[in-house]
Design goal:
The chain is an all-alpha fold. It has ten helices and no strands. The N and C termini lie far apart (39 Å).
Length: 195
């Protein structure tokens, strides 16, 4: 039963907002009160530049990767590994330390997918990069990569729990990007779209 502590621990780790902490340390405005109001790497880049955004991106990815990696190292059951990844991801979206108002989850989901299986995370990143190179729209890249992630999980991992976790993250990512989807459908989304 002790191994199930990975799930609440992963949620607490996911609840640590890299964007808010990095902005405070670097003397930048609170990302919840500037730009799009979203505490994520895209908004941090908007208000603080590439360095701050890169550190935020790394932090958000690691909090998804590390709990899952630890669960895999300890050879926990796939269902528990999947639940650990989901908990970290949900923690980012709804952080207990910051009034349950978190980011959109792209970077953290990449970390989780890398933890599930490195090739799964790389497939997500490669898809994001390819779509971005073609369309120059970050949100579209994230949406396409997220939508394909359960398919990648099915072919690269095959475990039902991992596929299900990937699908749940996809649904949340689509939901969190609903305003971006509306702008895409209206032809109003740009490479500088709110994120």
């Amino acid at each position: 039963m002790v191994e199930w502590l990975f799930v609440p621990a992963a949620y607490l780790i996911g609840s640590i907002s890299s964007a808010i902490i990095i902005c405070r340390l670097m003397g930048l405005p609170d990302p919840r009160e500037q730009g799009s109001g979203n505490p994520g790497a895209t908004n941090v880049m908007r208000i603080g530049g590439k360095k701050a955004a890169a550190i935020t991106l790394l932090g958000d990815s690691l909090k998804g990767l590390l709990p899952v990696y630890a669960a895999n190292v300890l050879e926990l059951p796939a269902e528990l590994v999947a639940a650990t990844g989901l908990a970290a991801f949900i923690g980012h979206l709804y952080p207990i330390f910051f009034g349950f108002k978190g980011g959109k989850g792209v970077a953290t989901s990449v970390g989780v997918l890398l933890g599930f299986f490195w090739a799964l995370g790389l497939a997500f990143m490669a898809t994001w990069y390819l779509v971005y190179k073609l369309g120059k729209i970050s949100s579209l890249s994230a949406l396409v990569a997220s939508t394909l992630s359960p398919v990648f999980a099915w072919f690269l991992v095959g475990d039902e729990a991992i596929v299900a976790a990937s699908a749940v993250m996809m649904v949340f990512l689509l939901w969190r990007h609903k305003s971006n989807i509306q702008r895409l459908l209206a032809g109003e989304e740009s490479s500088k779209a709110k994120g």
